[in-house]
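Q: Sequence in, structure out?
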Amino acid sequence: MTVLQEILRWSQDLPDWQSDAIRRLFAKSMLSGDDLDDLFALLKAEHGIPDPQGRTANRLSADQIPAPAGPDTQIKLVALRNLRHVNNIAENQCLRFGENGLTVIYGDNGSGKSGYSRVLKHACRARDQSEPVHPNVFRPYDPGCIAQATFEVDVNGTRRQVDWVKGKPAPPILSSLAVFDARCARSYLDEEGDYAYVPYGLDILEELASACTRLKALLEAEHERYAVDRTAFANLVGDTAVGKLIEGLSHSTKPEQVAALATVSAEEVTKCSELRKVLGESDPKSKAAQLLDCTPGPGQNGARCSTL
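A: Exactly. Output:
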């Protein structure tokens, strides 16, 4: 099992946002600011914070990475033919590759070299697929015109033709062909200026760890920005239902609990109005005497008093 196959198997147990991060890293090697924004929204959504844009995670899948080939399987690219809706490349043409040795393809700017290479990278599941396969800009846009091509390969001496269509999973057999360019490079410079080699695929783990660190910083900044200052409620903390709720306020506090304690019933409003009225009397002692019905009870030396 290759490193990428191991990463695919390992990613199946990861949260959706982390698997999405690996998928992006496989396609473009480094995450952009927009990628981090998306992953940050997906991370929060998995913990119950809705995303206003409704973004959803796309997990890493088997059709995005090279399929493992048997040790006795030899695959050669013989020809790339019948490109359709790829830049301004003429259709029904054939680009042949030498079965042995080196094939050099050259031409002026705009002759189609990059168009062919982008098709190769997408069809062969190259490590970098950040460059899209563009349609012919000199023709009116037609959503039905989808880039496609036919590959002729030699598998252990037997010729086969396989078709690639943009937007569909690339044929697994083509993933055994390695496509390498400057964007797929896997060499890094260390702090001392020496080249440090990272095995193919393992840099994904390094970049994923870096992304997690950056997302942690975003979380801490947002937490600090929205942190609640409870000093305004300090006088309410105490051995009451409201005081206990404020003292233990956290992410697990249910909104219904707060709403129940913050809601004043009609009975409580009436009682509060009466208390304000009583406390607002100019002579509270006189008012108290009026409200108290103090008459001696049978066989009692004291008074039986009733209040409103």
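The chain has nine helices and eight strands.
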